[in-house]
Design brief:
124 residues; mainly beta; Porin; eight-stranded antiparallel barrel; two-stranded antiparallel ribbon
């Protein structure tokens, strides 16, 4: 895959900050607009779209690993998260973004929602 600094296509390592917590992740943005993400607690897939010369949005669903018991701040067991981000590519091989994370239980009921911020750097 060829990597252009004006597109997120490629692999990135980053952190997402929410509710006073910081979680590490890796994400691969494919040239076809799809993406995959991996954390210590979850895996996910979604899509991304360029919205300008150095901006893009991405959406994903992260499913918690079966060996993880994730409890939301509201006290319910979480099964997955749907995340929407607006992001900006920086000229130094990084991107920053902000968005919303909506947590669902095992019955697809929304149990919690929060704002989130992300910072990532391109993996060579």
């Amino acid at each position: 895959m060829s990597v252009s600094p004006s597109t997120p296509a490629g692999q990135w390592a980053g952190t997402v900050t929410h509710d006073g917590e910081v979680d590490d992740y890796t994400v691969t943005f494919q040239e076809d607009g799809s993406l995959v993400v991996v954390t210590k607690k979850s895996t996910g897939a979604g899509s991304w779209t360029a919205t300008g010369d150095d901006t893009f949005t991405f959406f994903l669903r992260e499913d918690f690993n079966t060996d993880v018991t994730q409890i939301s701040p509201t006290g319910f067991r979480a099964a997955y998260i749907k995340i929407d981000f607006e992001a900006r590519l920086e000229g130094d091989g990084t991107f920053t973004g902000k968005g919303k994370a909506v947590v669902h239980d095992t019955h697809d009921k929304v149990i919690y929602a929060t704002d989130a911020r992300t910072d990532a750097h391109r993996v060579p």
